[in-house]
Design goal:
By secondary structure, this protein is of the alpha+beta class. It has helices at about 20-35, 60-65, 65-70, 75-105, 125-135, 150-180, 280-285, 350-360, 365-375, 380-415, and strands spanning about 1-5, 190, 195-200, 200-210, 215-230, 235-245, 255, 260-265, 290-295, 305-310, 315, 320, 325, 330-335, 340-345. Strand 13 (about 325) and strand 14 form a beta hairpin. Helix 3 packs across helix 6 (about 150-180) and helix 4 crosses helix 5 (about 125-135). Belongs to the inward rectifier-type potassium channel (TC 1.A.2.1) family. KCNJ6 subfamily. This is G protein-activated inward rectifier potassium channel 2.
């Protein structure tokens, strides 16, 4: 990754031939049609394109009812919020009306000597209002419970405790849903396209990330995964296999200081899943690169995660990102109008493996390369005959030397005897 500091050099776009300009719309249409056919695993906005079906153990959602309510959409969450309070107030309102009905308070409304359970409770509506006042602790002072009603005192205790539990549960659920950092991820942006080009003599896959807010993401880290189906050597088919892509976790470059837009770099080496992929091969591949940026929101301390993906048609071979950071009078300025812009650069169309092989061959010693060429091309017939004669003479000399050594050894053994 690196800071995009704009260089003073002017970047000139290459001029395309007339025929290429005419064929360009056709190529774009073909790419768009191919992109529509590819089923994404993760959408560009970070939503996972996976639906869970035939889940028979639905009771597991009820065992974690708090998370279930938090994960619901806002319209369902608000509906349940209003429904829980309304049902609670109606239930306890009915219980207050039932106590008044069983005690005969409704039959002695005009009797001043009668001591009711709740003063001024004369109908179900007034009982419902008293239930709301009790649970919300409003206390207007018009309807009050008397000390001559033990069943009313017991019901008051039960409603107070249950009302506190309902308030804690529902208010806590709403607070967690409001403070969820999902919306914070809306201000974390990824470049529309990823690019493949040379960097420091190596072929690299790069994409850009940025943060639109002035409040920073703390402990930000980046990950990337290649989503591609594969078949093992044993014949097992693995759909949507996930392969890690090194974006600097062995060097610490995956830990981001995301103050200005950064270019995340994945070096295509022997451990990279793009090692054998060339420019022509990339156009035919059905693959998807999923990138995940996560960190803590500085304002709340909650963990935030932003996701995006790049399919094969969105990975541009032979391009680089346009710089967006310029030095002004006393500060750096980021131009987000150029955040997604790329420009073409000279990049070999072969794969990283082929590029490494060509580089290794160019670095071979001269003597080794000459010997290999001679061995591959073969010697002339006259040179081959001379070489065979020389080899035959050397073998005869070695055999005569061996015989002389054997004779000397025999003579020495006889003299000793």
């Amino acid at each position: 990754m690196e800071q995009d500091v704009e260089s003073p050099a002017t970047i000139r776009q290459p001029k395309l031939p007339k025929q290429a300009c005419e064929d360009l719309p056709k190529q774009l249409l073909a790419q768009m049609e191919r992109a529509k056919r590819i089923q994404r695993y993760v959408q560009k906005d970070g939503k996972c394109n996976v639906h869970h079906g035939n889940v028979r153990e639905t009771y597991r959602y009820l065992t974690d009812i708090f998370t279930t309510l938090v994960d619901l959409k806002w319209r369902f969450n608000l509906f349940i919020f209003v429904l829980v309070y309304t049902v609670t107030w109606l239930f306890f309102g009915f219980m207050w009306w039932l106590i008044a009905y069983l005690r005969g308070d409704l039959d002695h409304l005009s009797d001043n000597k009668w001591t009711p359970c709740v003063n001024n409770l004369n109908s179900f509506v007034s009982a419902f209002l008293f239930s709301i006042e009790t649970e919300t602790t409003i206390g207007y002072g018009y309807r009050v419970i008397t000390d001559q009603c033990p069943e009313g005192i017991l019901l008051l205790l039960i409603q107070s405790v249950l009302g506190s539990i309902v308030n804690a549960f529902m208010v806590g659920c709403m607070f967690v849903k409001i403070s969820q950092p999902k919306k914070r991820a809306e201000t974390l942006v990824f470049s529309t396209n990823a690019v493949i080009s040379m960097r420091d003599g190596r072929l690299c896959l790069m994409f850009r990330v940025g943060d639109l807010r002035n409040s920073h993401i703390v402990e930000a880290s980046i990950r990337a995964k290649l989503i591609k189906s594969k078949q093992t050597k044993e014949g097992e088919f693995i759909p949507l296999n996930q392969t890690d892509m090194n974006v600097g976790y062995n060097t610490g470059d995956d830990r981001l200081f995301l103050v200005s837009p950064l270019i995340i770099c994945h070096e295509i080496n022997q451990n990279s899943p793009f090692w054998d992929i060339s420019q022509a091969h990339l156009a035919r591949e059905d693959l998807e690169v999923v990138v995940i940026l996560e960190g803590m929101v500085e304002a709340t301390g909650m963990t935030c995660q932003a996701r995006s993906s790049y399919i094969g048609s969105e990975i541009k071979w032979g391009y680089r990102f346009t710089p967006v950071l310029t030095l002004e009078d006393g500060f750096y300025e980021v131009d987000y109008n150029s955040f997604h812009d790329i420009y073409e650069t000279n990049t070999p169309a072969c794969s990283a493996k082929e590029l490494a092989d060509m580089t290794n061959r160019s670095r071979l010693p001269l003597t080794w390369s000459l010997a290999s060429k001679l061995s591959q091309q073969g010697l002339p017939e006259s040179e081959q005959e001379g070489q065979e004669t020389k080899t035959r003479l050397e073998n005869q000399g070695k055999s005569q030397q061996t015989e002389r050594n054997g004779d000397i050894a025999n003579v020495e053994s006889e003299s000793k005897v």
